[in-house]
Every structure is written in structure tokens, then in C-alpha cells.
Amino acid sequence: MPSPTPVPTPYVPRKPMDTGMLFNGLQYKWKVETSPGETAARDRKVDDAYRLELNLEVRMPRPAKSLADVKVANAELPKLLPSLPQLLETAQVSPDFAKLYDLKLDWLKGRLEKLEQILSRHNFYDCDTILKLKDAQTGRRALFVQGDMDVNVDGSDGDRNIEVDGSGQFFQPQTSYRWPKTTDRPNPFIKKYEDRIAEAEAELATPETKEARRRELGERIAASKRMIADLKSASFLVSKADPNIVLPGFMMRGEGADVPKVGDYAVVIHGDKMYPTIVGDAGPSYKVGEASLRLCNEIKETGTALARPVNDLAVTYLVFPGSRDEKRSAPDLDKWHARCVELLAEIGVPDAPLHRWENIVPPWPEEVPAASPAPEASPAPSASPGASPEV
């Protein structure tokens, strides 16, 4: 008697679900769905047979605007800025807040193909608010930006006696705040770009260098020459010596009473401390909260330029648009202090307990002039015959 034909095992689709988190803090939910297909030899040629579908869901934050909102980040703010409750009553949310988060979304959309390059959760939610403040009596305007704090290490200056570590991957020897050089001492990074030009020219001289590579080398040479010209003509802020902050580049484009510019004065508040600074540079347009190593280490000595001094949105950047000096020069920390005291008084904060910065850049050692060689002794004149020796 023949054996009965076995009943085929019915296919049961599977839809398990689990959650995980990438190293950048992006939480994700995943599920693997299966469905009956063809043979492996056939299905491996069908794109849709094995695919990943992405659906990134993001909660868009609202800007902090009330006193209760801003106290979440720093409960000391009403004590340090006693006029803040009145300023907040008439404060307007800056359109830069919405623009910032639109730029963050654009950044995300452009990098969804490479999940590990997506902005971290920390860097997406790095700005609590951007408010436009205006004092009713003086008319003084200020931008109230609440965020975290990262380190910016850019800048160099051949005129001043200070060593700069330019080994970081994203280091730039320039800052947007600059002033004409005052000495003939060369910028220490000129040689780096001269070497880069020499290496590129050597590769160009090789016959087997392909055309695409030649174009790339030509662009590198042109960019290096522009950099050298810049370093020869100007001096820049130095991160470990000069307290300054960085704002997103898009915030400083355009004109208007509320548009900050490079060189504008600013006061940084963390905890119960207030620090006078200036806007020293323009940073990425999708990110808020960068400051020089000098300022970061004053808030929290991390021992490295790679460590973030403040993770929480607990830093207030109070920027005064239109306050920059007409003529730029090397940092004058006493002048910066006095000007920030004046600006705070103009928004109802007189006698503010501002931190006083010390100039930590030593003067150049005095050059000791080379000793003049001793004059050679003149030979004694020969005695003439019959002459008497001198007494």
C-alpha cells in the first residue's frame, strides 16, 4: 500500500519586533517581515525580495518662551538676570529657531542612507530656544539662545607668543573674527600648506597621474595658496587663549537689528556664573552651542578638547546684535569685560557679577642683540731707522 502524500507545512509569515539604539543615541524599532517567495536563485535577482524600509519619526520641539520654560535649563537665570521676567513678556521667538530645526531635518534626510552619520539625539535636541529680547526703556536688543556647549578649537596667530595644537581632524587655522597682522612673525601653519602644495605639484609631475586626480590636485593647490595668503595678512583668535563663542552661520546672514554678526559682544551664563565673550566664528548651520577651549575649560576642566563641557541645555548665550566694534584688533579682555557690563546694564542688569578674564599670553622673550665682534688690534708701526722709541 503506497504511503500517503504528506501534507505540506503551511507557510506562516513572521513579524517579530524589537528595539535598539545606535551609538549616536538614535532609538529605532525594527521588525523582520517574511512572505512566501520563489527559489533563492530567482529571488536574489529581485530588488524588492530583500529590502529595508526606513521611516524616521521625529518630535519637533517648541521653543522655550516662559520663565518656567527657561528655568528648566538653569534655575539661576532669574537671579542673574532680574529683568528677565519683564523681557520675556515682550520677547518674540526668533524665526531662526524654526529655521535651525528645518536645517536639522534637511541634514537628516540627506544622510538616511548612512545611518551612523545621522545627527545624534544629543545634537538634534541641542537648542531649547532662540528669543529676541528688547529692553522697553533703552531699546537695547539681545538674542537669548539656550543650548549645550561643545568645544571649538580653531584659530592661530603668528603675532602672539602662543602655541596652537592643529592636529585635530576638523581644525582650521582661521576664525571669522580676524584683524591685520602687526608683526613680521610668520603664522606657524604656513609651512603646512606650503608642504601640501609641494606634494601636490610633485604628484602632478608624475605622468601616470590621471586627469580626475589632476583636477583634484589643482583645486588643492589653489585652496592652499588662498590659505597662505590669508595667514600672511591676518591674525586670528586662538581657542585656548581667547574666550569666544560660535553661532550657526545662517543666523548671521542678512541684515536687521536682531541679526548678530561676528565680533558682537555676548555674555555666556552657566549655573551662577557669567562670562564676557564675543562672537568669534560661524559654525555649521544645523548645530548650536560651541565655544572656545578657554571658555569651555573655565566652565569645566575636561583635560581634552574632545570632551563636551556641558551636556545639558544649561548654557545661556546672551548675544547683543549691533554691538561689535568698527575696528577689529587683538583681544583686549579688559575692554571686553567693560563693554559687556555696559550692555547688560542696558537690558536692566546693572552691576552684573561678570567673570574677569586674565590675559594668559606671555610676551615674546626679549631678543638679545648679538655681541659685536671685538675689533682686531692694529699692528704696531715699524720703527724708522734712526728714530727714537716712544716713551
Molecular structure report:
The protein has ten helices and twelve strands. By secondary structure, the chain is α+β, with helices and mostly antiparallel strands. The chain has helices at 40-43, 67-73, 77-80, 84-89, 95-109, 121-124, 190-204, 211-233, 293-299, 333-345; strands at residues 17-21, 27-31, 92-93, 127-134, 141-152, 178-180, 234-236, 244-248, 265-270, 273-283, 290-292, 310-319. Among the domains are: 67-154 and 240-345, no CATH class; 178-236. The strands form three sheets. It has a six-stranded mixed barrel with strand order 5-11-8-10-9-12. The model is unreliable at 378-391 (pLDDT under 50).
Structure described in brief:
This protein has 391 residues and is an alpha+beta fold. Helices cover 25% and strands 19% of the residues.
Strand and helix map with partners:
Layout: E1 17-21, E2 27-31, H1 40-43, H2 67-73, H3 77-80, H4 84-89, E3 92-93, H5 95-109, H6 121-124, E4 127-134, E5 141-152, E6 178-180, H7 190-204, H8 211-233, E7 234-236, E8 244-248, E9 265-270, E10 273-283, E11 290-292, H9 293-299, E12 310-319, H10 333-345
Helix pairs in contact: 7-8
Count of individual beta strands: 12
Low-confidence stretches: 378-391
Mean pLDDT: 87
Distance between the termini: 154 Å
What is the topology, as strand order, of the major beta sheet?
A: 5-11-8-10-9-12
Structural class: alpha+beta
Largest sheet: 6 strands, mixed, barrel
User: What is the share of helical residues?
Assistant: 25-40%
